[in-house]
Write a structure and sequence with these properties.
Number of strands: 8
Structural class: mainly beta
Helix content: under 10%
Shape: elongated
Amino acid sequence: RTLRGIRVTPIVNANLSLSGDFSLTITKGGADGSSDISQGGEFDARRGERVELSSSEFSLERGARFRAVLKVRAGGNEVCRDVRS
């Protein structure tokens, strides 16, 4: 939580060196309607490195809800899928 609402910052904690790509989709819904935020891109992480992939901040009015879906791919395979709400 932030003063303005919610900040979502997906992070890769690399146990091994890896390169890949990610996609992040955030859906927010409430009395005022719904909206989507989509982000994605490539990343490189060395062994033991903590890499912030992106960051999104948005308001969350009373009664509103959000769902964030992160997919991380490396070596041609999905290595992580995380859903938060």
